[in-house]
């Protein structure tokens, strides 16, 4: 087993989870076995967690105690604590501005954290779990992950319409995450004044440009690291100043240091087990 100098040796460092991460435009899938509780955190994306085996605990900000469940949906920027309880879990992160994200926001309007009925959670993750057991390739896993999101979101076609200028701005920024991005530059790229663009962006995404950029860069860095880059390389290629900046952001957004997330290949186990 080989590791980069700045990457974790799972035998020596605390590990929060072991598995795989797969991204696609508008979302990502984090799946595997969760080995330790994750402290309170918040992130811009909508989070869907589905237990493939066992159950987990979730505690929203303001809840008196954690609740055990097989499925839940966390709305953007809502603080919460997560304890995987050693279960195999599929975590789906969805950009709120995407069609599926808008459909999720419509269905779960008024909730910070919504617990799904066990039957719905089992049905949503059933096909994804089967591919997980079969160690399916990333492309197939991404396809079934997006299918699980659609099952929970309902019909994305019924979601509120997107503003094409914000959609174009998101694509423009995704292609330039490794470089500094200023609001004024994005506004010019989509032919809007900075003030008008700021208003439209917040109205469409529900967050500031700075918060969105941190989320997008964090997701990109983790995806790169799980593809084999060192955490330092991943930090630079995702637009962070250095690995320390990446670590601070990861702790704030996900409640763990990036080195506590270990690709299944580093453990010497088959991807199907992620253990």
From TrEMBL:
Listed Pfam families: HTH_18
Organism domain of life: Bacteria
Keywords: DNA-binding, Transcription, Transcription regulation
InterPro entries: AraC_XylS_family_regulators, Homeodomain-like_sf, HTH_AraC
Key word Transcription regulation present: yes
HTH araC/xylS-type domain sequence ranges: 167-264
Protein name, per record: AraC family transcriptional regulator
């Amino acid at each position: 087993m080989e590791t980069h100098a700045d990457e974790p040796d799972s035998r020596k460092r605390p590990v929060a989870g072991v598995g795989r991460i797969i991204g696609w435009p508008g979302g990502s899938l984090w799946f595997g076995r969760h080995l330790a509780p994750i402290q309170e955190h918040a992130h811009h994306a909508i989070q869907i967690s589905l237990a493939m085996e066992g159950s987990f605990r979730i505690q929203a900000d303001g809840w008196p105690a954690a609740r055990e469940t097989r499925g839940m949906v966390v709305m953007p920027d809502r603080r919460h604590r997560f304890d995987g309880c050693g279960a195999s879990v599929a975590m789906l992160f969805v950009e709120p501005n995407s069609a599926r994200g808008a459909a999720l926001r419509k269905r779960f309007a008024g909730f910070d954290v919504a617990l799904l009925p066990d039957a719905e959670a089992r049905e949503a993750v059933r096909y994804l779990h089967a591919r997980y057991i079969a160690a399916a390739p990333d492309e197939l896993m991404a396809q079934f992950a997006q299918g699980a999101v659609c099952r929970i979101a309902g019909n994305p076609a019924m979601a509120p319409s997107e503003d094409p200028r914000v959609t174009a701005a998101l694509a423009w920024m995704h292609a330039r995450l490794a470089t500094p991005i200023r609001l004024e530059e994005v506004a010019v790229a989509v032919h809007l004044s900075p003030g008008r663009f700021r208003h439209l962006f917040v109205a469409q995404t529900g967050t500031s440009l700075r918060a969105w950029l941190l989320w997008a860069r964090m997701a990109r860095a983790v995806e790169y690291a799980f593809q084999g880059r060192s955490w330092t390389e991943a930090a630079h290629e995702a637009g962070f100043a250095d690995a320390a900046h990446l670590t601070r952001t990861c702790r704030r957004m996900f409640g763990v240091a990036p080195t506590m997330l270990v690709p299944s290949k580093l453990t010497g186990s088959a991807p199907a087990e992620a253990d």
